[in-house]
Specification:
The complex is a heterodimer of chains A (446) and B (425). Chain A is of the alpha+beta class and 446 residues long. Chain A contains 15 helices and 13 strands. Helix content of chain A is 44%, strand content 18%. The chains are: A alpha+beta (446), B alpha+beta (425).
């Protein structure tokens, strides 16, 4: 059996130090909660000439009064803040060698990887030597956006056109309906990008109010990864963010999903392509069944790829995934893009491969591959400092500790074929799965 | 230039040519126990004929399907077993195969990759299945407005050249392609002296060179394939064709003739492109996007470089064809306003470009992919290195010279895509 030579080293030392990155020279993470409630995470990683600042803003959809407030706020953070207008912000970013990202690019595949219905982000990368002035600007953008009227009008026009386009894109339609099926009546059921009606009705006062509810210290996690000594960075953060006030809205009990019999959504779009989302809710990330469910997702992905893509040519892109939320546990999802005229075959194929996890439990080779793939992914995903900052924020948000990746690899190694069969039988039965699809599909053909 | 970028650009890179003619670019970085290997094959979709459009990309898929000694499943299992990421992509001028492996499994990953590239049997039983997968990929792209717009734009702007055709080809050409044709194409282009390997990460150069020498075999006795030269993009006059499409938005996309990557003004043209994209300094964006009555919802310029075929692309997105046309008409006067460009703007934009370059270089896979484009345009690392060194020295005069080279006289070809019924569906 192949055993990675770095793995035991990281599992021992990594967990002890709380390392969330993979650089051999990483320092321990410094965590503090400022008196105003802002959680701050700082890590020192020498090496590349890059520093990263990441802000995670929680309950993004739960705090919306009108659909689209969250994404519009994100779009406008860089369009005016404090004494700076859009042009001054752009000039400052350029002169510092910095780039900031607050929304996904809908045209880049998987650009939504760092986004969620649970939280919004502000990601800033900068040349290491300019970290502190970049923190000044970052602080101004997230705490004091000015929401100029002309910028709001432009952002609304842009978003409106985008939403009109998206209504014809099968993947976008199927994905939004998928979350609506799984979490009816909850914030997670809403489209991340809002709705045409919602965006149309949003006024400047709505955005100011949304910012006051969401962008408050206790609803945010700030992570900084750079080569600067952690205490110096922390001192700068205290100076800037310490006076940041705002109580926001106390989190109430999240609304439970409304009971519904609806298990399926088929949307007709005149398109050669059909997108399928299938899945169910699963327990929170800390639950003891999660490692086995993760293994099930990865083995299912391998087998779907082998059977549905490589043997039958039914798809170009497909796979299974898990996703976790603070208030609503997790979900197990399966996604596949296929030809509209092969929708039925594709749907049946997914269920067939899913059943195979019970009839032919994972082999030792498949289980070993899962662990090694996780390790390879861990190394790749943690190369960039901005990603290290993202994972620090995410694991803080989910309350699982910064060594979660490494602990998960250890947990995955303990999963047995029987564990996988058990969780598949417990969570992934056809009566628990919802189906969302969009394409040139007729309901009466099912 | 910021010291951090200076440091990055001075990282030692070794470049060598193996006895079989394969070029290998080696950049050791021991900070993370990972290695990226990107093998660039100088075989792109522009080398296809009308009846074989999409074959280069189809071949890329087929190379994952089995070799003389391994089945498709064995190739994939061997990568997966070690947590190695593997992928490939086909472009107009080249095809790139990349792996990112934990460094302890590098040798095995290189062997597996070389087996795919050099010893494929293009299995008959996988052939028809792979056609279906490629057609699925076409459907995916054609569900995305941006991809659809890009395909139509190239068809119009570059009509009569191989750059007009989609890399994926068409359903009809893929359905009709014969295994014998693909085999001959494979044997013609996939040879070590037509490849450049880029290796970045935690490895020892002498070990990797030995492995490459061993697994890529000898240089073939036949001469390298000769490819027909493609004339540069030189539009006559101003051509904008209007076309109805299925989406509710309007896209205006035009191409202006540009400069090759090895031109002395190429870095200055990239600076100009970013100035035109700048939300603070672009006189054009001020008129079309940031005015009191904006004409467009999105506007962007991009500088696209192929092998002897370069263009600067303008993309506008809006909700009515007349607004798009008005926006295009405002370009010449905006370009004139650049004559008062200040040194401070150029300096800022230079820093921004170099910083973005540093950000991408943090990820070995992205760095390998980015380098692939450069080595495919030239013969090695030199062009890439000198380009970024020159970028740090671009002056206002050079930016204005680049402007004049590209936009005077104003020549372009492009398309205006609009929904039916004048914008309302």
């Amino acid at each position: 059996m192949n055993t990675h030579r770095y793995l035991p080293w990281f599992l021992g030392l990594g967990v002890f130090l709380g390392i969330a990155g993979c650089q051999k020279s990483s320092q321990p993470i410094v965590r503090t909660v400022l008196p105003n409630g802002l959680t701050v995470l700082v890590k020192t990683v020498p090496g590349t000439p890059v520093a990263a600042i990441h802000l995670m803003v929680g309950r993004r959809l739960a705090l919306e009064k009108k659909p689209g407030e969250s994404v519009l706020t994100q779009m406008l953070l860089t369009k005016g803040a404090g004494d700076l207008d859009r042009a001054a912000i752009a000039q400052t970013l350029e002169s510092l060698g910095a780039r900031v990202k607050t929304v996904d690019n809908p045209y880049i595949p998987f650009d939504d990887y760092y986004n969620s219905r649970d939280y919004a982000y502000v990601r800033l990368e900068v040349l290491d030597e300019n970290l502190f002035p970049a923190l000044d600007l970052f602080h101004t953008m997230v705490t004091s956006p000015t929401f100029p009227q002309d910028e709001i009008r432009r952002a609304k026009q842009r978003l409106t056109l985008q939403l009109k386009e998206n209504e014809r894109v099968p993947r976008w339609v199927a994905r939004n309906k998928f979350y609506a099926l799984l979490y009816p009546g909850t914030p997670l059921a809403r489209p991340l990008e809002g709705t045409l009606e919602g965006v149309h009705s949003i006024e400047r006062s709505d955005l100011v109010a949304y910012h006051q509810r969401a962008y408050v210290p206790r609803n945010c996690i700030l992570a900084v990864v750079s080569s600067a000594p952690a205490q110096e960075v922390l001192s700068k953060i205290r100076e800037l963010f310490g006076p940041w006030q705002g109580a926001g809205e106390a989190p109430g009990a999240p609304p439970p999903p409304q009971p519904t019999e609806k298990r399926e959504s088929i949307v007709f779009l005149d398109n050669d392509r059909a997108d399928i989302y299938m899945g169910t809710t699963i327990p929170p990330i800390q639950h003891e069944d999660i490692p086995a469910l993760r293994v099930a997702a990865m083995v299912l992905s391998y087998r779907m790829s082998n059977v549905l893509r490589e043997q039958r040519g039914l798809a170009y892109r497909l796979g299974a995934f898990t996703e976790f939320f603070n208030d609503y546990g997790g979900l197990f999802g399966i996604t596949m893009g296929t030809s509209s005229d092969q929708f039925q075959e594709a749907r049946d194929g997914i269920l067939e491969v899913l059943r195979s996890l019970i009839e032919e439990p994972p082999t030792p080779q498949e289980l070993r591959r899962v662990v090694n793939a996780q390790w390879g992914s861990f190394l790749r995903y943690h190369q960039r400092k901005i990603n290290q900052a993202y994972y620090l924020s995410l694991y803080e948000h989910l309350g699982v500790g910064y060594a979660y990746d490494l602990q998960q690899i250890a947990a995955l190694r303990k999963v047995t074929p029987d564990d996988v069969v058990r969780v598949v039988q417990k969570y992934l039965t056809p009566d628990r799965l919802v189906l969302s699809a969009a394409g040139r599909i007729q309901k009466n053909k099912e | 230039m910021p010291w951090g970028i200076l440091l990055m650009l001075t990282v030692a890179v070794q470049e060598t040519t193996l006895s079989n003619g394969m070029k290998v670019i080696l950049k050791e970085d021991h900070s993370v126990p990972l290695v990226n290997v990107t093998v660039v094959v100088k075989s792109g979709s522009v080398y296809e004929s009308d009846s074989t459009l999409g074959m280069t990309h189809f071949l890329e898929h087929m190379l994952f399907d089995g070799t003389e000694t391994q089945t498709r499943q064995q190739i994939r299992d061997r990568f997966d077993e070690h947590g190695t990421y593997f992928n490939a992509f086909t472009r107009e001028d080249f095809t790139a195969y990349l792996i990112t492996a934990p460094s302890e499994f590098l040798e095995d990953a290189i062997e597996n990759q070389a087996d795919m590239l050099m010893h494929s049997i293009l299995p008959k039983k996988e052939f028809e299945k792979e056609k279906k997968v490629v057609i699925q990929e076409m459907h995916k792209d054609r569900a995305n407005p941006e991809s659809v717009a890009d395909e139509i734009f190239k068809k119009v702007a570059f009509a009569g050249t191989p750059y007009a055709e989609p890399v994926l080809g068409y359903e009809e050409t893929i359905q009709q392609v014969q295994r014998g044709t693909v085999w001959n194409y494979y044997k013609r282009f996939y040879r070590p002296d037509n490849m450049i390997a880029i290796v970045i990460g935690d490895f020892r150069s002498q070990d990797v060179i030995k492995t490459f020498e061993r697994v890529y075999g000898p240089r073939p006795s036949q001469p390298l394939p000769k490819v027909r030269p493609i004339p540069p993009f030189e539009p006559k006059g101003q051509v904008l064709k209007e076309q109805v499409w299925q989406f509710p938005s309007c896209y205006l996309m035009v191409a202006f003739p540009a400069l090759p990557a090895d031109h002395t003004l190429a870095p200055a043209l990239e600076v100009l492109t970013e100035i035109l994209n700048s939300s603070s300094d672009s006189p054009y964006l001020q008129k079309v996007l940031y005015s009191d009555s904006p004409l467009v919802t999105e506007a962007s310029f991009s500088y696209v470089r192929h092998l002897g075929f370069e263009y600067l692309q303008l993309t506008l997105k809006t909700d009515s064809p007349s607004k798009a046309r008005k926006a295009l008409a405002l370009l010449p006067e905006s370009l004139e306003e650049l004559s008062s460009l200040g040194e401070d703007v150029v300096q800022r934009v230079r820093t921004s470009i170099l910083a973005s370059h540093a950000f991408e270089s943090e990820n070995l896979t992205y760095e390998g992919m980015g380098l692939a484009y450069w080595v495919a345009l030239g013969s090695g690392y030199d062009l890439y290195e000198s380009y970024y060194q020159r970028m740090g020295e671009v002056t206002v005069d050079q930016v204005l010279q680049a402007r004049d080279q590209v936009f005077k006289p104003l020549r372009y070809r492009g398309v205006l895509l609009r929904p039916s019924q004048g914008g309302k569906r």
